[in-house]
Design goal:
Helix content is about 30%, strand content about 30%. The chain is of the alpha+beta class. β15 and β16 form a beta hairpin.
């Protein structure tokens, strides 16, 4: 069995490591991949070059395709590959609108009474400005402003002041900060409470939650600085109790799958629920239509069930027949980034990746020349450790982070601290 994975980051490296445990898999290709991936064979084909990828898959006798990144999914990769005769993991173009358009997602939630933040959608700059001015005058600050389309996890601004909100509108809608993705936007009320990410697998009929996690989006310690693609993750999330999980199942997870099926676009793949645990109950912050990055890096090492078997069950709509089990304990992923990320940063800086730690290292922005590795992106590698307790996992992750060296290395030093404090309070 040969498998092709689209994508080239740490998330794809985590999927490769998990798929490698299945003895029926012979070879794993990753396009474009990166030079630091062990267990997979990278090929320099862009993840959105569908016709080239189909030719490659036929030539290399690929049996199964995993479409991992958001852009190819939103652009209809699964539809293309399915039409070409390949078994695929991932949602159709229609279903991927849940991530591809925040306006679509909010309207969908409204139609199906799925709890989320109060919002308004805008295509007109002046109307957006007027709404923000009115909200600010009535004391509704901060405001959350989101680009409608994909923006690499960076198209969200929490505006503390009206001035900041107006500047964001200018940057998104008039200065093309995210191209077409920012020409439409939504303005949301600011929700407060612990954030939780829950990745789920669904075959369009059955939905199975995986472990909960806590992402750390901001660039700097103390949740300061700009949003990033994610600076680290812990799993499971101690704020996500069994009672809350049951509420989410009834009011969010199952209504989402049921609603998508009723609207003629059943969701098959990994559906990511970004949640806020507000005083009024859990609410949806956002949907993503694929594994989170770096959530996958923290969660998949704890997965006891065979990932490829689960992927096939999603494709074949037999997920109800599978048991999804996780190991006891906790996981911590710390992202090692290039100094300056998510803004300007230096590339081509030599990296030391200790060989004895390679199983715990997930490569993202990495290239190789000869036998030497170099930085090739903002988020360079993620280091992941598992342990019986969250505290141990965090401590071990930072020890491993210290062992990976490059001159421009930057990382947050507080990954998991809020979760650890909450856990220790609950046990006191």
């Amino acid at each position: 069995m040969n498998v092709l994975i689209l994508g080239g980051g740490g998330r794809e490296h985590a999927i490769i490591k998990a798929l490698r445990k299945n003895p029926t898999i012979n070879r794993i290709y990753c396009t474009p991949g990166n030079d630091g991936m062990d267990g997979g064979t990278p090929f320099p084909i862009a993840a959105d070059a569908f016709s080239t990828l189909i030719r490659f898959a036929k030539t290399e006798h690929v049996d199964y395709i995993v479409v991992s990144p958001d852009n190819p999914l939103v652009d209809g990769a699964v539809d293309c590959f399915t039409e070409a005769g390949f078994a695929c993991f991932g949602p159709t173009k229609a279903a991927a609108q849940l991530e591809g358009s925040k306006i679509f997602a909010k309207a969908f939630m409204k139609r199906h009474a799925i709890p989320t933040a109060r919002y308004e959608a805008f295509e007109n700059v002046q109307e957006a400005r007027d709404y923000v001015h009115a909200e600010a005058n009535t004391g509704h600050l901060p405001l959350v402003i989101k680009a409608d389309g994909l923006a690499l996890g960076k198209g969200v601004v929490i505006a503390e002041t009206e001035e900041e909100a107006q500047e964001t509108i200018t940057r998104f809608m008039e200065q093309d900060a995210f191209g077409e993705s920012g020409h439409r936007l939504i303005v949301e009320e600011f929700m407060e409470g612990p954030e939780v990410t829950v990745l789920t697998l669904t075959d369009g009929k059955t939905i199975v939650p995986l472990l909960s996690s806590m992402d750390h989006k901001r660039a700097y310690d103390g949740d300061k600085g700009p949003n990033t693609g994610g600076m680290g993750v812990i799993a499971p999330n101690p704020f996500y109790t069994e009672d809350i999980a049951e509420i989410c199942r009834k009011t969010i997870f199952e209504p989402t799958i049921k609603g998508m099926r009723e609207e003629g676009m059943p969701f098959k793949g990994c559906l990511y629920f970004g949640l806020m645990l507000t005083k009024e109950g859990p609410k949806v912050v956002e949907y993503n239509c694929r594994f989170g990055d770096p959530e996958a890096q923290a969660i998949l090492p704890l997965l006891e069930s065979d990932l490829f078997t689960l992927f096939q069950a999603v494709t074949n709509e037999t997920l109800e027949e599978e048991m999804v089990q996780f190991k006891d304990g906790a996981s911590c992923c710390v992202i090692l980034a290039s100094k300056g990320y998510p803004k300007q940063y230096e590339k081509n800086v030599e990296i030391t990746l200790p060989r004895h730690l390679r199983e715990k290292i997930y490569c993202a922005g990495v290239r190789k020349k000869g036998s030497t590795y170099y930085t090739n992106g903002g988020r360079v590698v993620g280091v992941v450790e598992t342990a019986p307790t969250l505290r141990e996992a965090i401590e071990k992750a930072y020890e491993t982070a210290d062992a990976v060296t490059f001159r421009t290395k930057y990382f947050r030093t507080d990954i998991g601290q809020k979760a650890l404090e909450a856990l220790e309070r609950s046990q006191a």
